Amino acid sequence: MTRYHTVFDHARGRLVSSGTAEIYVEEIGNPTAPVLLMLHGGFGTIKDFNGITPALARHFRLIGLDSRGHGRSSLGSEKLSYKVLENDLAAVIQALDLREFSLFGFSDGGVVAYRYAARKDPRLQKVVTVGASWEMNEKEPCWEMICGMTGQRWKDMFPASYEAYMRLNPKPDYDKFAASVIGMWTDLSTDGHPDERMREIDAEMLIIRGDNDFLTNLASFARLKGLVPKVHLLNIPFAEHAAFDESPDIVLHALMQFMGVDAIPSTGG
Length: 269
Prior knowledge:
- By secondary structure, the chain is of the alpha/beta class.
- The model has no long low-confidence stretch (mean pLDDT about 95).
- It has an 8-stranded mixed β-sheet, with helices on both faces.
- The relative contact order is 0.15.
- It contains 10 helices and 8 strands.
- Strand 7 (about 205-210), helix 8 and strand 8 form a beta-alpha-beta unit.
- It has a single domain (about 15-260), classed as Alpha/Beta hydrolase fold, catalytic domain (Rossmann fold).
- It is globular, with a radius of gyration of 17 Å.
């Protein structure tokens, strides 16, 4: 009989200080199994992973982070950037005294995973990303779309995301939060996407993309496979940005094989 929790619920976590922010961290799954840190996407929370966490919980100690400003984490006074989120991740790893771990990052969380992997931390075992670009510039197909995004437009498109933010955040200021996230997306400085720093990554990586994901670029991932030898690329037909929700069995099968777990879980009944 399972004696551990299998989904994130924002009820049993703790706060870890990082700079001027407090980062919400919650653990579920098998406490004696290998550690898999889960990093969600922009405007999201750790609950976004609950479609796949029950299948993973037996095989991993799952540690979810609400990114700075998201969920139950405070925004702090530092300018939001992928570099700041990378430092937040490092603070959590230190606070939890993790000796070995792997990373699972979706979208913005995947960008953070790339940046952290470029640190060459010997405790990092493997990296899995879904829908996460490694480079960004004005020529990317999604550039015009992200530059045109506003907090109001996001709220109109995804009202549940806005409602979750207002319900969970310790000091909600949606306009400031939304502007910070969108500013991070369009930051082309060295605080943004890792770009050529991807060459510095030693950890083995599984990079997953939905074939219909308009936010990522297949040609870019093909270049990355030629740039970094330890990249495994999975392009899933018919899936969009959140491929782990749209094609969970394919993602889980690949993830478990990549992580060296014998049992291949399924989300089916």
